[in-house]
Design goal:
- It is a single chain.
- The chain is an all-alpha fold.
- The chain contains 3 helices and no strands.
- Helix content is 71%, strand content 0%.
């Protein structure tokens, strides 16, 4: 029933708009321009702009920052491919080897996974 009402409204608007003609359109445009440029309306527009600048901007910035962090985390997770992770065939460290020692160049699969 919602679609039928929507199309009926569109049809009625088209018929009434077509009958009104160019003169009525020009009249509506003139009146709406006067209303838009009136002092009370412009005062509200300025108020809304200021509210958006002071109240909404920090909220939007936080949302964008959170979305960027989430996206970055997802991209990093997707770049780690199973073949590039440390496999069980990698050399096992000897007991003498320090856990914090640096592996030789080219043997670091984590570094390879993080390269573009």
């Amino acid at each position: 029933m919602g679609k039928l009402g929507f199309f009926a409204g569109m049809a009625a608007g088209y018929v009434l708009g077509a009958r009104a003609g160019k003169q009525r359109y020009a009249q509506i445009k003139t009146v709406s321009g006067k209303v838009w440029n009136s002092q009370p309306v412009q005062k509200q527009v300025a108020s809304a702009k200021e509210a958006a600048r002071t109240k909404a901007a920090p909220v939007v910035a936080d949302l964008v920052g959170d979305a960027a962090k989430t996206t970055a985390a997802r991209l990093r997770a997707q770049r780690t491919v199973a073949s590039e992770t440390i496999s069980s065939t990698a050399a096992t460290p000897t007991p003498e080897a320090d856990a914090w020692s640096t592996p030789p160049a080219g043997d670091d699969p984590w570094a390879a996974a993080s390269r573009p």
